[in-house]
């Protein structure tokens, strides 16, 4: 009932918000951004308290999160239409872009602030209103953003939050996907949940954006700078304890540099990563989100070892507590092991040795998802070939961290539909209307 009430509130606020001049929407989004920056320390502490990520990472997320409000505040004033040359001299042909209406925003726990602003910034800039359903693990970040939205002058009903328990999640999600007053669904989460939401949305043919699961390959070719590859691997794999959709899930290392890479990667893990309380300044690895997440990591390690994989470092729960897990590196991994077939979403790095470029690309593309992919090479021809052949929506070449507000975020295959951020992100919340003026 509360979810439906939030949808009605968003619908009733929509007409006035959509009619505001773009500059007005821009000013308010900009003020919201400024308030986030002013309150960044408190907002970061909320994230660390909610999901355990190290405070430094949480501070980084808040600045990344705020940047989407800044970006889309600027994009609000650049929603351009077209004038098309008409085929008849007594006609003029126009194309307008208009807000789709109420957007339901369903977000995950791993980036409880950034996953909201990346969607909501675009939606509000386009003139849409939103109903946000945050993950049941992390509702406070969404509510904190709502408080700052009020302070920024975002009118009542434009930004609505519906927190709910795990038991109510499916029911609330179904309401948001089936209510006829909702015109658009934007979801970030697992592929399995995304498919359920797509089925619900089909009943009323809603617009959908889906940013779903990943299974990112990280390929290191013989020509790579190994030290740079190790630094990129560390950043890509262990950020947020491996709990991001663009984290590397499979390392593919060419035989010529395989042993050197594994040795240096293990040393870097042992030297640079520190498991601990997220509020401790030296912590780089916080807890996993819950017991179920830890059990999945354990399952993947047990399966791999039973099939011949070797634990190079880590491999078990940390003494700090049941949700803390040691950063783990496996070698002698094959494509038959669970950890190379499923997304682990934890601090586990499995390394597969390969012979040729063609073999690496084939292994990388064997997944039914394609969000991010990474590779290290200093061969210009190889860089072009592999970047074009990888079946993913985003490619990092000699770079392990690729997310940026200016760049389109999204995947191919079963990793989703649509793009977020960048100049393309606002189009997800706009309808194209063709107007033909006759009798001229």
From TrEMBL:
General function of this protein: Catalyzes one step in the degradation of the inhibitory neurotransmitter gamma-aminobutyric acid (GABA).
Entry annotated with the keyword Ribosomal protein: no
Domain Aldehyde dehydrogenase: 2-435
Pfam families for the chain: Aldedh (PF00171)
Main location: mitochondrion
Keyword Disulfide bond included in the entry's annotation: yes
Its EC number(s): 1.2.1.24
A biological process term (GO) from this entry: gamma-aminobutyric acid catabolic process
Cited InterPro entries: Ald_DH/histidinol_DH, Ald_DH_C, Ald_DH_CS_CYS, Ald_DH_N, Aldehyde_DH_dom, Aldehyde_DH_Superfamily, Succ_semiAld_DH
Class of this enzyme: oxidoreductase
Lineage per the UniProt record: Eukaryota, Metazoa, Chordata, Craniata, Vertebrata
Family per record: Belongs to the aldehyde dehydrogenase family.
Source organism (scientific name): Dasyornis broadbenti (rufous bristle-bird)
One GO cellular component, as annotated: mitochondrion
Quaternary structure note: Homotetramer.
The name this protein goes by in its record: Succinate-semialdehyde dehydrogenase
Subcellular location: Mitochondrion
GO molecular function: succinate-semialdehyde dehydrogenase (NAD+) activity
Record key words, sorted: Disulfide bond, Mitochondrion, NAD, Oxidoreductase, Phosphoprotein, Transit peptide
UniProt catalytic activity: succinate semialdehyde + NAD(+) + H2O = succinate + NADH + 2 H(+)
Pathway(s): Amino-acid degradation; 4-aminobutanoate degradation
Gene3D superfamilies the UniProt entry points to: Aldehyde Dehydrogenase, Chain A, domain 1, Aldehyde Dehydrogenase, Chain A, domain 2
């Amino acid at each position: 009932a509360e979810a439906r009430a939030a949808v009605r509130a968003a619908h009733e606020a929509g007409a006035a918000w959509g009619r505001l001049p773009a500059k007005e929407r821009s000013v308010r989004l900009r003020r919201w951004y400024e308030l986030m920056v002013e309150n960044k320390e408190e907002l970061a502490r909320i994230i660390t308290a909610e999901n355990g990520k190290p405070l430094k990472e949480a501070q980084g997320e808040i600045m990344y999160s705020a940047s989407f409000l800044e970006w889309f505040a600027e994009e609000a004033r650049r929603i351009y239409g077209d004038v098309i040359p008409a085929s008849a001299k007594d006609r003029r042909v126009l194309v307008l872009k208009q807000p789709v209406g109420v957007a339901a925003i369903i977000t995950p726990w791993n980036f409880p602030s950034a996953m909201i602003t990346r969607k909501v910034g675009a939606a509000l800039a386009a003139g849409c209103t939103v109903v946000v359903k945050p993950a049941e693990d992390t509702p406070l970040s969404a509510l904190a953003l709502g408080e700052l939205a009020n302070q920024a002058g975002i009118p009542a009903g434009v930004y609505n939050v519906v927190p709910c328990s795990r038991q109510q999640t499916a029911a609330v999600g179904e309401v948001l996907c089936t209510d006829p007053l909702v015109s658009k669904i934007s979801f970030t989460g697992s592929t399995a949940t995304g498919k359920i939401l797509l089925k619900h949305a089909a009943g009323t043919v809603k617009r959908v954006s889906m940013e779903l699961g990943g299974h990112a390959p990280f390929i290191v070719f013989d020509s790579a700078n190994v030290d740079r590859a190790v630094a990129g691997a560390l950043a890509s794999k262990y950020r947020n304890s491996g709990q991001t959709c663009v984290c590397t899930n499979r390392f593919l290392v060419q035989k010529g540099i395989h042993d050197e890479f594994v040795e240096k990667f293990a040393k870097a893990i042992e030297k640079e990563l520190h498991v601990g309380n997220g509020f401790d300044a030296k912590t780089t690895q916080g807890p996993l989100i819950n017991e179920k997440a830890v059990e999945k990591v354990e399952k993947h390690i047990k399966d791999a070892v039973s099939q011949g994989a070797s634990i190079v470092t880590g491999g078990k729960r940390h003494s700090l507590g049941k949700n803390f897990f040691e950063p783990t590196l496996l070698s002698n991994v094959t494509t038959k092991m669970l950890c190379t077939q499923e997304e682990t979403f934890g601090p586990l790095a499995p390394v597969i040795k390969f012979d040729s470029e063609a073999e690496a690309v084939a292994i990388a593309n064997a997944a039914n998802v394609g969000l991010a992919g990474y590779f290290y090479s200093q061969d210009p021809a190889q860089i072009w070939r592999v970047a074009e052949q990888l079946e993913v929506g985003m490619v990092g070449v000699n770079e392990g961290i690729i997310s940026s507000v200016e760049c389109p975020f999204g995947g191919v295959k079963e990793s989703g539909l649509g793009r977020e951020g960048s100049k393309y992100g606002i189009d997800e919340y706009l309808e194209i209307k063709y107007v033909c003026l006759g009798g001229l």
